[in-house]
Amino acid sequence: MSRADGPRRALRPPPGGPHAPRAPDRTACVLAALAPLGWFAVAAVDAGAAAEPLHDPQAPPAATVQAAVWGYDQNAIARRLAHRWRFPDWLASALGNLNLPLAAARFVVADPDLFAVAQLAVLETERRTHTLGLTDGADRPALLAALKLDDAALDELWTRVVGASAEPAPALDPNPHKVPLVANLLKMAAECRRRNGAALVLRLEERLDHLHAAVARVGDGADQRTRDAKLAALAELAAGAGHEINNPLAVISGNAQRLFRTEPEPERGEVLQTIIRQSQRIAGILRDLMQFARPPQPKPHRTAAADLLAAVRTDLAPLAAEKGVRLEVSGGAVGTFVRCDYAQIKHALVAVARNGIEAAGAEGWVRLGCTDGDDESVTFTIEDSGPGLSAESLEHCFDPFYCGRAAGRGRGLGLPTAWQFARQNGGDVRHEPVADGPTRFVVTVPRSITLEFVDRQSA
Fold this sequence. Notes:
Layout: H1 6-10, H2 25-33, H3 37-45, H4 47-55, H5 62-69, H6 74-84, H7 89-95, H8 102-105, H9 112-128, H10 140-147, H11 151-164, H12 182-196, H13 199-262, H14 266-293, E1 301-304, H15 305-323, E2 326-329, E3 337-340, H16 342-360, E4 365-372, E5 377-384, H17 391-396, H18 414-424, E6 428-431, E7 439-446
Parallel strand pairs: 2-4
Antiparallel strand pairs: 1-3, 4-5, 5-7, 6-7
EC number: 2.7.13.3
GO molecular function, one term: ATP binding
Organism: Frigoriglobus tundricola
């Protein structure tokens, strides 16, 4: 057996098979240690370029450095090396897909549990030290939910790991048999690729790169597409149910009012009044539900983004003062115009901001702002200082009648209706995670590019 075969023989699946309920320590450590395999390859060819992102915050993005040295990004390099060195599937599939969100990675990696453990370990290391772009597409909330962890548990694990590694290893091992062969193997692989790369293998590897990019794109949009499909189905159900409930409710309310007008006994009259009040309450809920399920067709006009923000602040200022929340509206929207139904988009922004005020609580803050999203849209951001969304709230926050607050304090139709209004105006409402930052929701609205003549007929 040659010395180059040594690493391969050491990288065997753990006892119990690759699909054990959780990843064994030794296996997870091997995967985490080899996570920057692509960067090892970059360092073997150009050590200075590989070290630059660790020391210079203004260094080019990781993918740019990797492409300049090897012609591929970190994951593509790792896939090629894992194939040439015949790594086992549980290792090769994870190394080549570390930037995929867990939802997409489950379909392409051999051991999803092992992948989740290693990806979270690498992600936390990058968040707390230096980033090499190894886990840019990772979905941290999904990883925490899959592994049943929270931030407090991660902090405790990090403290234990850092404490255990406080003693630095010697810089030079005097035993030459213990010197790692990774650098030499990488240099040999890079040189071999330049000299003897077979055309068929290269084409297959390029096809694999395209498939990997497609899986990444599908994974990035899967949650949003699932949410949109679920809300569309709920809207159809709500529209049908609302119509069916409204007809018998009108009969109940009408008969109760007729009986109340002719009822001589006060006790029976009080009971009939209770029926009338509760019927009116149900009717109000149905009106809100139908506004989500079948909103009126929008009447889009050219509107200044600053006017929308000012209207939202005016509407919510009393509620913010009552709750003791500081309501801030940042600039940056001057000269920016959107094309939308003013009342509907204002309703959407008010609904999202009201949720922020409720979540921030006394002495908290809510910040509204507007930026140019792209050539076709304008982005409104609503941030609050609240505790953020739990994994359950993040999954269901757009569901009708779901309310993360105590029962009876809200109908849970604010965000669903905001989403429906934004959607039929050509925009969207979504939650945007911010690492160690505020809770942020984003409302996108189509930009108004061409000027419109003012309709003077309704002077």
